[in-house]
Amino acid sequence: MGGNAAEAHPCGFKWVTEAKANRGAKLIVIDPRYTRTASVSDLYAPIRQGTDIAFLNALINYCIKNDKIQWDYVKAFTNVSYLVKDGFAYKDGLFTGYDEIKRDYDRSTWDYQIGPDGFVVADETLQHPRCVWNLLKEHVAQYTPELVERICGTPKDKFLKIAQWIAECSSKTKTMTSMYALGWTQHSKGSQNIRAMAMLQLLLGNIGVRGGGMNALRGHSNIQGLTDVGLMSHLLPGYLNMPVEREKDLATYMSTRGFKPLRPSQTSYWQNYKKFFVSFQKSMWGPAATAENDFAYHFLPKLDVPAYDMLRAFELMHDGKMNGYFCQGFNPLLAAPNRTKITESLSKLKWLVTMDPLDTETSRFWENHGEYNDVNTASIQTEVIQLPTTCFAEEEGSLTNSGRWLQWHWPGGSPPGEAQHDNWIMAQIHLRLRKLYETEGGAFPDPIVNLVWNYKDKNEPTAEEIAKEISGYAITPVKDPADPTKTLVEAGKQLAGFGQLADDGSTACGCWVYSGCFTEAGNNMARRDNRDPDDAGLYLNWTWAWPANRRILYNRASADMQGKAWDPSRKLIEWDGTKWAGYDVPDIAPNAAPGTVGPFIMNAEGTARIFARGMLREGPFPVHYEPFEAPIDNVIAPKIRGNPVARVFKDDAEQFGTSAEFPYAATSYRLTEHFHYWTKHNRVNAALQPEFFVEISEELAAEKGIKGGGWVRVWSKRGSVKARALVTKRIRPMVCDGKTVHVVGIPLHWGFTGAARKGFGPNSLTPFVGDANSDTPEFKAFLVNVEPTDGPAVS
Amino acid sequence: MQISRRGFLKAASVGVAVTTTVGAFGFGEAEAAVVAHVRPFKLANTMETRNTCPYCSVACGVIMYAKGDLKKGEQATITHIEGDADHPTNRGTLCPKGAALKDFVLAETRLKYPMLRKPGSDKFERISWDTALDRIARLLKDDRDRNFVTTNKDGVPVNRWTSVGFLAASATTNETAFLTYKVVRSAGILAFDNQARV
Hints:
The structure holds 2 protein chains of 2 kinds. Chain A is built from 22 helices and 32 strands. By secondary structure, chain A is an alpha+beta fold. Among the domains of chain A are: about 5-215, Dimethylsulfoxide Reductase, domain 2 (3-Layer(aba) Sandwich), CATH 3.40.228.10; about 310-395 and about 420-440, Rossmann fold; about 555-595, no CATH class; about 650-790, Barwin-like endoglucanases, CATH 2.40.40.20. In chain A, the strands form 13 sheets. A 6-stranded mixed sheet of chain A has the order 26-28-27-32-25-31. Chain A has a 3-stranded parallel sheet with strand order 11-12-13, with no helix packed on it. Chain B is α+β, with helices and mostly antiparallel strands. Chain B folds into 3 domains: about 1-105, N-terminal domain of TfIIb, CATH 2.20.25.90; about 110-145, no CATH class; about 150-200, no CATH class. In chain B, strands 1-2-3-4 form a 4-stranded antiparallel sheet. Chain B has a two-stranded antiparallel ribbon with strand order 5-6. The chains are: A alpha+beta, B alpha+beta. At the A-B interface, helix 2, helix 11, helix 14, strand 11 and strand 12 of A face strand 2, strand 3, strand 4, helix 3 and strand 5 of B. Strand 13 of chain A pairs antiparallel with strand 5 (about 115) of chain B.
């Protein structure tokens, strides 16, 4: 659900077919299209795109009604027994505290009741009407199989069969894994899609166990790494937050980051936040970050809005408030929504710098390519500098995969022409800017001229040098907290891991979750011992995984209250009477006896959250909301359009279409033979799937007089494309709320550069709105119209 | 990590030579003639390097074969890329994307030189790296000096620069990512993102 691994992640999907062949695993696929993943499934059901929460909440409801809950796990390891504040309530699609003007909530009631001892009040009997369990039961009660059929278009009998199979995984010896990708994230409520499944997985006892989990099948080779290292507008490396402007100094910034445990004897590991933060500041600014200047707290820019995400950046450009932009290996002309707006925005820039191994559409957005890029070149005043970079085959370093393994790779080829490594380019930009500030002065030069730059060759920092910075080193000797006469790490030496970080400025560490990747023992990311004791699937000596080389997060939850594996055939770690030990690095203090410390050590509760408190903007429980462009109204809350808290810029709201004008439900996807917009530069991949097409059902084709292989025009409120029609049985019309809904599938790959034929991408059509928490664009559910048309003129 | 098959093949050819001299099978001259016309195994001249596929995050292991050895300062051209059988995830397999990786490395549309498109122009013109980088540094400096905000209306230091943005790449290494982080954040840029949101 929310992914199509057989096509998008084929070599990983191989392990699904292995599990089917060797362990009797069953594969369930729920997708608007009968994908190649569906073709090898044991059970397939269609679902209308953008309605996953209705389906998932109904699964939770089914498990509750049929008592298919892993009770020992749920009672001990989740927050079901905690009492929630009295003001909290849900009605007609909204929780307490909604402000329609701000499109936001006052979330103050979305929290636990705190007792006089300072801890959360709990009712272990689950009888109290305000406990999370009873609030959950009440919340999901309306999501019945009948409602699923009405909203999702999934036939009731199919839903019930799936529910029955999934519910069996509440057994201690049966485990379900969830594999999802952009089919869940690219929605205006993507975070809540994922959360709904995470809740179900917790109720079934499937988190922290072998073969379980919530598996984000990430799209790019290092999208995990770039997130971990914090290359996002609101993040510092290691999931620390950028300060906001009301946090006027370090003490204020830290005042909401105490992470005091909410239950007795819990770890609440974020209590070490300040150590991570100060060590990051030291890695950036070294001697210029001192206790006296709040460790250079004001060298960091302060946010005035929640995020300067990509959509906001293009909005600023569109408003003429952004002058210059860099695209380093990013092709937003095809990857960002509403291409017309992207072109207009780029045209308003004074300058654009692109860095890429390949000739991207973005770097040539000003070039006229007929209907494929119909711009008025002469009127575009943007100066464009296109920089050639090396590719993977010509460079060294680590990439972080979906399993959080940091794998080192080595260069084997010479770059073409004058192409340069990104490290060299970034160094040149910094050194030249730094020199200008040193010679000319200017606006607040301090963070630039004091940036740590201790590389042997300042012009070209090596991957090893930077990896050492990321992993962390001692600035002054690190003493043993148990015995201060002993030195654990000498000054200048690499730290062993984040356990040695300090908040007094004695340690530097670029990204605390990566601490330990490069130690005095060497580069752990380059390890290549592929032994796997007892075929546990963990490979502890193959490269290095964050955090602390741990392969399965929350692995303490794989064992029961006595510390024995729930399922002896899936042992991960067990309590041997004095410590935790087993196949994996324990995700708990090794000496924390069972029954005291909860497995979810990053949460102040020590337990996992069925009730999410105020952590997500829509509410503590997921609610079904329709996409902003939906073929039917929201049947549980007809007045609400889309996600009530998603940010919508004014011009974009005016560009949402209605089902009267645009009756068909469109979705975007990728083909096995293609990787986003890159492989159109490869002759082999371009030839394997040569031409842009859209996929429609036989029924819609008959209704509109469209022939297979014929030309169609597909248009939304924002744009129009021409494509070949692929008339298929893989997409079938669905009936939702009494109305026939046709799905239109639009693959992505084509543009106007490279070896492939010219074509369009779905982003010519998609709406400019994102998820309320992550601002991921709603590419997976929008409205279009379709008609037969003539092909392009043959010249 | 680089492994040369040359060493192995050298040892093997020594074995062949010895055999030839001694004439182990008793056909001395005929054996020598056979050895003389056998072409050297093609892989004798390639350097193998371990890498990982740059596409999706399954991160399959690959082995790249190149003519020329980078470590010796030679020009190296990738001639073949295949799955790494030692890798625990893919165990030698590759998908239709990974199997065609060589086409990406050697694509005709690989960029070779810094290029400049002047305002209103309909073409890119080749420029030198120094010209490109000096120009970028100047554009950054001038815009930053003009638009940097040191304090908000309440007088609180905010030190932000929002008129320039940076999209980073989720196919770069963690090391490039951190170096990019240092350069971008130290300048005060807030509009900083990568493909994680897409």
